[in-house]
Amino acid sequence: MDFFEKLWSLLEYFILGLVQGITEPIPISSSGHLIIFRELFGIEAEGLSFEIFVNFASLLAVLVIYRKDIIRLIKNGYLYVFKKENAAKDDFRFIVYLVIATIPVGVVGVLFGDAIGEALSSTKVVGYTLLFTAVALWIIRNLRGRKNDGDISAKDAIIVGLAQTVAVTPGISRSGATIVGSMLVGMKQETALRFSFLLYIPVSLGTGLLEIPDLIQSPEFQTMLIPHIIAFITTFIASYFALKWFMGIMAKGNLKYFSYYCIVVGLLVIFFL
Predict the structure, then answer these.
(1) What role does this protein play (predicted)?
(2) How far apart, in whole angstroms, are the C-alpha atoms of residue 73 and residue 75?
(3) Are 56 and 212 in contact (CB under 8 A)?
C-alpha cells in the first residue's frame, strides 16, 4: 500500500466516523447514512462489526452528556432498594422502565438482527425507510406532552421499547423511533429525549461488549488499527456536539426539519442510487 492509498484509507475511516457521529444522535439513521456513503464513495469497512465499534464511541459521548442523570439514577436506585427512601422511588421506577423498554429490542436483535441487517442493507431499502422515518417525525412534529420522568408507566416503556425494535431495520433511526414512541405516549420533549438516550446505553453497551472482542481479534482490525482509532475518535467528538445541538432542536420543537431532510434524501436515494 503506497502513501496515497494509506492516506485515502485514513480519510475513508474519518468520513465514516464523522457520518456515524453526526447521524447517530439525530433522527435520520446512522446505519442508513453509512450505507449511503459507502455506496457513493465506494468505502469499505468491516460491515456490522465496524458499525458496532463506532456506535460504542457514540455511546461514550452519550455517557458524558448524561453523566449527571446517570449518577443520580444509580444513587437513587441504590437508596430506594437498600435504604427504602421513598424520595428516590421515581428514579428507581425510571430505571425499571428503561430495563423493560430494552427487552423487546434485545429479543429481536438476538433472534433476527443479523438476518434483518443482511436482507435489508441495500440503498433502495434505506431510501424507503428514510421516507417512513419522515412520516413518523411529521406525525409528532407538533406534539407537546405533559409527562415528566415520574409520570412514565410500564405501558409507556413497553410501547417505546417496541418502537425501538423497528430501528433494527437499516434506515430507521433508533433515536427517531424511540423519540416518536415517547412523544406518542405523552412525554415532554425533555423527558422523551432523556428516556431515548438513556435507553441507548444498555442496548449499545450490550451489543458492543458482545461484538467488540470479535472485531479486535479479526486480522482486518489488527492491520487497520490506526484507521479504526481515527474513526472512533471522530465519532466520539461528532456525536458529542451533534447531541448537544439536537437537544436545542428538541427544546424548540423543530423536528419537522428532520422530516423534510429524510424526505429529500430518501427520494434521492430511491431514484439515483
Answers:
(1) Catalyzes the dephosphorylation of undecaprenyl diphosphate (UPP). Confers resistance to bacitracin.
(2) 5
(3) yes
User: How far is 116 from 109, CA to CA, in rounded Å?
Assistant: 9
**Torsion angle (degrees, nearest 10) of CA 152, 67, 211, 121:** 60
Residue 6 to residues 14, 168, 231, Cα–Cα distance (Å): 12, 33, 14
pLDDT tens by residue, 176-212: 999 999 999 999 999 999 999 999 998 888 777 777 6
| Cβ atoms of residues 121 and 163 within 8 Å | no
DSSP-assigned beta bridge partners for residue 187: 147
pLDDT digits (tens, 9 = 90+) for 42-58: 776 554 567 777 888 99
In the chain, the number of structural domains is: 1
Whole-number Å distance between alpha carbons of 176 and 196: 9
Nearest to 12 by CA among 46, 52, 55: 46
Residue 137 is which amino acid? Answer: L
Please give the residue range of the domain that contains residue 95.
3-272
Taking every pair of Cα atoms in the chain, the longest distance, rounded to a whole number of angstroms, is 65
Name every residue whose Cβ is closer than 8 Å to that of residue 174 and which is 6 or more positions away in sequence: 29, 164, 167, 200, 203
Predicted TM-score of the model (pTM): 0.89
Query: Phi and psi of 146, rounded to 5°?
Result: -120, -10
CA distance 218 to 228: 13
The continuous run of DSSP H or E covering 98 comes out as helix 89-119
- Rounded Cα distance between 66 and 197, Å, is 8
Q: With contact defined as beta carbons under 8 Å apart, do 164 and 104 qualify?
A: yes
Q: Look at residue 147 and give its three-state secondary structure.
A: strand
Cell triple for residue 15? 468520513
Question: CA–CA separation, 162 vs 135, rounded Å?
Answer: 18
